[in-house]
């Protein structure tokens, strides 16, 4: 029994280290994949009089893989056709049809090893999605992205790059090329940011690698980019969870955004099917509002911190809360819930100082 207990203790100590090592290995593989795609991107340009490979958004995709419009030299030939939110997500022929594939010749290079997305999500026989990556939508777009109704025009803030000589602003080392995209938003291989509204993510990067995503730049270098948004979505199969890692509060007097740590959150709520106007509380969580309690929680003394937070919650609400029930509403990660494309998720966070913020995320 003693030997078993010792082995169990060592196993418990090793598991976190093994998990971290696996994450690091997957991140390294992901960066290597993107480096190979970047190398293919350079080779294509070198073979085509320094013109960048065309990049197609969702409006230049069709249902027929045999459509000759995708062939090299035709109007819709592009680096990687196909949509990841349709049955095309599991068909390697779409990747093989892309203009960069002859320089890569391996479908697996288009997929991040940390990406567990499947299509159809929640279906009877889901298959792994084959592509995790997208290209900067302003690099030689076949059809430039325009926010709003067709014909609304392109902002003069936009700089469209068609050949490598265009990289003077902001310079190739500051111009992103490929990145792994959030599985909740990936469709085409065309990643969009709206320069008219830098706070609005039309497409979103992934957080596969410890809240970071892999990204390459037009000078060839690659890195892991850590995203610091305090409210994050995590997808696991056909279910999604919300994680709270802090709180951003706008100060209208000083015109600045103050960032609060996670220990400053008193409680937070989730409406996982927000209609755009009425916030319906579908999940609520208490986090405690005392840093000492949070430090205890981090050290593994969760019962002490949870008991103190439960007592405060009962005093505030003037009710008694069952211990088992409180366990379900204590923490910084929501319960899983199903999502579908276009669904809005609203998250409302209240600090121990009475500050409140609401963020709406769209799938």
Report on this model:
The protein is an alpha+beta fold and 363 residues long. Helices cover 23% and strands 21% of the residues. It folds into 2 domains: 23-227, no CATH class; 233-362, no CATH class. The chain is built from 6 helices and 16 strands. Strands 5-3-4-6-7 form a 5-stranded mixed beta sheet, with helices on one face. A 4-stranded antiparallel beta sheet has the order 13-12-15-16. A 3-stranded antiparallel beta sheet has the order 8-9-14, with no helix packed on it. The radius of gyration is 23 Å and the shape is elongated. Mean pLDDT is 82; it is low at 148-152 and 289-301.
Element-by-element helix/strand order: HHHEEEEEEEEEEEEEHHHEEE
The parts where pLDDT drops under 50 for at least 5 residues are 148-152, 289-301
Please summarize the sheet with the most strands: 5 strands, mixed
First-last Cα distance: 50 Å
Strand content: 15-25%
Radius of gyration: 23 Å
Number of helices: 6
- Total beta strands: 16
Q: Would you tell me the overall average pLDDT?
A: 82
Shape: elongated
Count of discrete domains: 2
Biggest sheet strand order reads: 5-3-4-6-7
- Range of helix content: 10-25%
Structural class: alpha+beta
What descriptive keywords fit this protein?
2 domains, 6 helices, four-stranded antiparallel beta sheet, alpha+beta, 23% helix
Task: Give me the secondary-structure topology.
Elements: H1 2-47, H2 92-96, H3 101-104, E1 118-119, E2 127-128, E3 133-136, E4 176-180, E5 190-191, E6 212-217, E7 222-226, E8 231-236, E9 239-244, E10 247-251, E11 256-260, E12 265-271, E13 283-286, H4 291-298, H5 302-317, H6 323-328, E14 337-338, E15 344-351, E16 356-362
Parallel strand pairs: 3-5
Antiparallel strand pairs: 1-2, 3-4, 4-6, 6-7, 8-9, 9-14, 10-11, 12-13, 12-15, 15-16
Helix pairs in contact: 4-5
